[in-house]
Each structure stands twice: as structure tokens, then as C-alpha cells.
TrEMBL record:
Higher taxonomy: Bacteria, Pseudomonadati, Bacteroidota, Cytophagia, Cytophagales
Disordered, as annotated region: 19-42
Protein name: DUF3298 domain-containing protein
Pfam families: DUF3298 (PF11738)
InterPro entries linked: DUF3298, PdaC/RsiV-like_sf
Signal peptide region: none
Domain DUF3298 stretches: 309-385
Highest rank taxon of the organism: Bacteria
Amino acid sequence: MRLSRPALLLALLTACHSRQNDTATPDPAAPPAAPRPVAAPADSPGAWYRQYRGLLPGSADSITLQLQAWPRFTNDSESAGVTGSYAGPDGQPFDLNGDYGVRHAPDSLVLIDYNPEHVAEGAPAGPVWRLRRQDQELTGTVGGRPVRLREARPLGSLQLIARFYADSVAAFPGRASSPHAQLRLLALQPVGLATGRLRDNLLRHLRGDTLENQPAPALDALWQQRLAAYTKDYRLDAGERQRDMAGDSLPSYALRYDEQQLMHVYWNQAPLLSIGYFNYGYTGGAHGSYGTRVVSYDTRTGRPLPYEAIFRPEARPRLVALLDRAARRQLRLAPDAPLEGPLFVPHLPATHNVYLTSGGAVFVYAPYEIASFAQGEIRLFLPFSELRPLLQPELPVGTAADMAGPQ
């Protein structure tokens, strides 16, 4: 994954509501006024999350596609504005990246499959998905072959509302030629009264909390806090960098910072919701830095499922062996080939950055954690058929019915 500098900004639009001051004396004989209907939660303009089902070319098994979109700035090269993830019956998810070099029309989407399992030897990428939204269908091609997917909400999945915030910050307020930084936030909120604890935990994790002992923030307030903190830090940094130039003019491009926090859906079917909290920051240099913190939630309770809730305490050595084997498969290495060389490490650590699907667990490693930046995030899937003896007995998935993983 490669990100570069932005060119234009998108202003955050907020709606302001005022109270009416009604001083008229009510008629005691009049019936009580009917309560005003509460507006249903709605997506931000240009932001949405949908699920689609259908067959991929040459496959007899249906897939479920988690698809998201959000606004993109004019001439934007920092955000693709679209992302996806799909899985078949075995529960192994595959990510789809938006094409940063393509300007998407509202109903036309281009995604690229960079999963190593789907990239031919020597090729830069796997199949390209070119899709068009038509009513409740996606039509187009995958790898040049026709495909048709239909919008669907699988049994037990949650409706999620997409809320998008964006603003720009001047490095030197009052200067007409001041460079600007961009800040963006894409949040997902579940709909329904029964999702209160889940909604609160999603907001806590968006804020960066690791415990449930603090009140959950309101989303609008969280955005305002994030914007205020970013504005302060950015202007302090800009002032320091300008002073370091000792009278020379600092090139404006050196301060075209960008920061993004985007919530991505990897799994959405009871009893699991698995979310990625993607963070990207650019503060000058050849490229920005990024990573995804992943969390699964038990949708019956709204509680997160961290590593300790998934695996038994003694699981680590066996997990390392399974991850080593999975890495060799993904890298197309011989079963006894050393990992150090293609990777930075001789053995895969059992990272606690892990999420669940109905078919297994996905371990996520950030760039530079075990491999070069050019190799991007590395994700390794282990099916429940391999993990069953290592799982906590109270886990809501991973039973015998979930063990039909890939052989």
C-alpha cells in the first residue's frame, strides 16, 4: 500500500439546530401534543457501508462482500475513498484496496486485490474489481470476467451507519499562502436499541481506550476533540520547523500533513462483528505511516474479544508454529525454508492484533513489524480446524460446526 500527498481539502459541514422559544400559554383543555418523531440515523453524504452476496467468476461458492465508501477530496492522492473485504463459506477474508489513481464516480468503484494468494508470480497485483452500483446490485467485472452481486444483509448481521468528518488546518493562520493539513475520521455506528453497549465500545476503541471503565464519548464531541488536538500539534510543529530553517523559507509541501482514522468492517454476522481501526499519518518525507488495529466483538453482549478472550494461556508456542507454516504458504516457500530473508524474523510472533471470522482467526502485522514497508500489512489466516485445541471454551465461535477450514 502506498500513499502520497493531498492536493485539495474538503470542508466539514455540520448542521446546527436551534430551539424555538414558544411563549404562548397552552390551553389546559387541549390534548397533549404528539411527540415529534425522532430522525432515523443516517449516513453522512457520500459515506456508506453495504453487504453484497453472489458468485465470483469460476466459483461455485457464494461470497459475502463488505463494501464501504466515503468522500474523497478533488485531486486526492491520500485516500482512495473505497475499501472492501470478502469471504466465502470457509470464512477466510480477503481485503480489497481502492485504486488511488482513479477518480470514482458516485456509483462506479475500482478495487484491487493485493492478497498474495491471488497475485501471480512476478505480477504487481491480483484481479481488479470494476463495479457499478445499480439499484441494489453491483455489476461489472472481476479480473476482466463479468460478475453480479446483490445487496443483502445476512441473517444476524448488523446495520451500520457511516459517519464521515473532515477538515483542513492552516499552519499559519492569517497567511494567504499558508500550507494546510488534512484531518479525516470515518466512524461506524450500529443501529438499534439492543446495540448500546456495542456502540459505546466502538466509540471507546475509536478514541483509543483499551478498557471499559470510562464513559463512551459522543461521536461529534470526539471529532471536535480530535480536531482541536490535531490543530494544536500541527501548528506547534509548523512553527518549530519554520524556526529551524533559520530565516529560509520552508517549502509549503513540507507541511502538507495528513491524518486519517477510518473504521473498516471485516466481519459482520452474528455472533461476531470484526472491525479494523485504520490509522494513517503523513508528516513529510517519502511516505506516510499506517497500521490497522483490529478488534472482534461478541454481538450478543457488545463486549470486545481480545487475544486473552480468544486463546488459552498456553497457546503461544503452538500459535507460533502455525503462523510460521501459514507464512510459508503465503510466501510460496518450501515447508522447511527459512523465513528470515523474505521477512525480518525467523519465526512469526503470536501478535495480539487478531480478529475472528466464522471460520478462523486473522493475525495482522503492521508495516516494518516483521517485513519491509513495501510488503505492507501482512495478514495470516488460521482456520478453526487448526486452532480448536487452543481456543478458550467460552468463545462464541470455533465449535465443531465452525471447523470446516481450508485444507
